[in-house]
Amino acid sequence: MADLDAALDAAGLTNPSVRDYVRKYADLTGAERIEVVNAGDDARLVQEALDAGELLPAGEGRYYSRSHHLDTARSEERTIVATNDEKDKGVYNNWRPASEMVPLLEDRMRGASVGKTMYVIPYLMSPPGNDLAPWATGVELTDARTVVLHMIRMARVGVEHVNDVGDQFVRAVHVTGDLHNLRQGTPEDRRYFVTVGDERTILHFGSSYGGNALLGKIAHGLRQGAYDGWASKKFLAEQYMLIGIHDKETGKDYHICGGFPSASGKTNLAMMLAPDVLGDRYHVSFYGDDIAWLWVHEDGRLYGMNPEYGVFGVAKDTNERTNPTALRSVDPGTGAIFTNVAYNPNTEEVWWEGRTPSRPEDVHGWLDWTGAPIADRKDSDSSPWAHPNSRFTTTLANVPNIADDYDAPTGVPIDAIIFGGRTRDREPLIRAIHDLAEGVYDGLTLGAEATAAAEGKEGVLRYDPMSNRPFMAYGEGDYAQHYLDVVGAAAEQPIFAHVNWFQRDPEDGHFLWPGYRDNLRPLLWLLQLRNGEVTGRQTAVGIIPTADEFNLEGVDISPQDLETILSIDKERWQQEMTNREEHLRQFRDLPEAIWEAHRRVAAAVEDSQP
Ligand code: GTP
Ligand code: SPV
Ligand code: MN
Predict the structure, then answer these.
(1) Containing H/E element for 486?
(2) DSSP assignment, residue 339?
(3) N or C: which end of the chain has fewer CB within 10 A?
(4) Running DSSP on this structure, what letter comes out for residue 216?
(5) What's the confidence (pLDDT) of residue 497?
């Protein structure tokens, strides 16, 4: 490409290592032109996307996009972590040798961008100046303009982030491929989503949706971050939300982070409004809703920060009751992008299941997520209007409860780490754990129903260690040891807890706990426990609140349901301990401290009163 140097010069992209990398992939993919992207290019690129029909208007300053109908979620089968050392093979990371995958991906990418623009997106997955910024720098190359628009919302984007980093940046290459001919979901599937951990290179081919294509997010922010955190011995990269809780009465601030599997409540928790009766006293602030990096700073405390700059949130069931904060974050004028929801081009409205109690009455003009008119549907067709993994994208600054210091380089000290998944029985509302090894053990045995965030997995009950199963970068035994080492190095230990908002009545299926805003209540109890203000009740699997320790003013729950979610079913837990043993046995080199924790908990379950 003759004008490559001229384009890089004009953009002020001076780092020679970055320039060499761009040249290599421009040559390989055969892109016709390159364009270096800065955050300030957003308005122009939005207009170009509207003109090209890649975006459609969704009211003032909001946009709608539709992905290919076979390209709507992550594919766990097609996602691979490759390295040059077979010791990195784990149970969940789909390890392959780098020497096999790199040529294979380069082959797929060869000539695949002929006639297209290759956008060069320099990005930073941390607040500027953060301790971990050296691992957070990357350059994504993509051939899709809508991916650029998403990256501008989800990451800090601009050449200033990469000019002075030498060779220390992640090479993140995204090539869409011919979505009509990739045989998605068949044995001849041509897609590959590969992170080459020890080469700090990400090669994704065959999708333009979500984390498959916005490479700063899960590929760098989780998989590469996890690998780097372990290789450097410095940090953890986790699929965690991160919130602050401010107590206006005492003036104290607390920070809680925690892992819930995909589409299981992180965004909702991070955007939570305090329940009305508690609102005068407590305020919840949003730091992050999907990823946190954790490390111990020179002052000896455990810190967390959100590498992202935006929210890629699940649309389904987002409404004025469940999450008004999310709705405000995508109000007119926010620049939000909706993907794969239902759309009405006449009125420029969007809709998804759970947005309102019933579907829009006048179906005239409404199109489902595939673009098919609702009015043409057969009466028997009850399929959802919006794809179950349809999402909204908006920058952090649009989130009404964004923390004042979300962009501060320091990050925030962590008081508590929580885990939770969709579990319809057994798991109580909350159980707290003081001991580090038992906390890590608890995270490793997180069991949950999988969701539509991954292709073809919805409803499957499975273990999802630390909510990181789809993002594991190296062996689980090494991971557990690294977790113990990082958190164990902190002078002040966080408290751990397991939470469950999803217990259901076995007969009629209703959720026993109202959830959403009321989720603040068990978290406040946890902080009180940490402060020694309550004692709870010790059980075999942790400390659970007694009903009187627990502020339930204004909560809509029956006494029987409350009793169920605050109790431990011995028999179910005995079964669970057998399953856990089998689950943990898969992992090579699991630290003895984790096995000891397992044996301690299993013995306590056996000894407990039924
Ligand atoms: P990813 O972005 O995929 O990693 O997911 P997430 O963990 O951020 O999920 P999110 O908060 O967007 O939750 C997804 C789904 O869980 C939505 O359909 C919510 O309505 C539902 N949900 C969240 N919190 C609660 C709760 O407290 N109770 C119940 N019953 N449902 C909830
Ligand atoms: C998830 O699936 O956990 C997400 C969405 O947060 S994606 O970035 O597409 O992976
Ligand atoms: Mn996620």
Answers:
(1) helix 476-488
(2) E
(3) C
(4) I
(5) 98
Cα–Cα distance, 96 to 88 (Å, whole number): 9
At residue 461, the pLDDT reads: 82
Q: How far is CA 211 from CA 170, 204, 243, 568, in A?
A: 16, 10, 22, 37
Helix axes 16-29, 4-11, angle to 10 degrees: 140
- pLDDT, one tens digit per residue, over 17-51 is 999 999 999 999 999 999 999 999 999 999 999 99
| Alpha helices (runs of H) in 407-453, residue ranges in sequence order | 436-444
Q: How far is the CA of 262 from the centre of ligand 2 (A)?
A: 6
> Which CA distances in Å does 217 have to 103, 154, 279, 448?
24, 8, 33, 23
pLDDT (mean) for 550-563: 93
Orientation angle between helical segments 476-488 and 436-444, nearest 10 degrees: 150
- 503 φ/ψ angles, rounded to the nearest 5 degrees: -70, 140
Distance (Å, whole) CA 274 – CA 177? 45
Residue 32 DSSP SS3: coil
> 413 CA distance to ligand 2 centroid (A)?
25
Ligand 2 pocket, residue 312 CB under 6 Å:
yes
Q: Give the integer Cα–Cα distance in Å for 69 and 162.
A: 35
Q: Are 61 and 337 in contact (CB under 8 A)?
A: no
Q: How many CB atoms are closer than 10 A to CB 298?
A: 6
Residues with Cβ–ion distance below 5 A, ligand 3: 262, 290
Helix, strand, coil share of the chain (percent; to 5): 35, 25, 45
Q: In this structure, which amino acid lies at residue 513?
A: W
Q: Is 271 helix (H, G, I), strand (E, B) or coil?
A: coil
For 200, the token pair is 């700090």
* Chain centre to alpha carbon of residue 330: 19
Contact 310, 394 (CB under 8 A): yes
Digit-coded pLDDT (tens) for 276-328: 999 999 999 999 999 999 999 999 999 999 999 999 999 999 999 999 999 99
Which residue minimizes the CA distance to atom 4 of ligand 2?
262
340 burial (CB, 10 Å; 0-12 / 13-18 / 19+) is buried
Taking the CA of residue 515 as reference, the ligand 1 atom at the shortest distance is 27
CA gap 222, 237 in Å, rounded: 5
The Cα–Cα gap between 448 and 238 comes to 17
CB atoms under 10 Å from CB of 567, counted, come to 13
CA distances from 567 to 155, 184, 517 (A): 42, 44, 22
Give the distance (Å) from ligand 2 centre to CA of residue 453.
6
266 lines ligand 2 (CB under 6 A): no
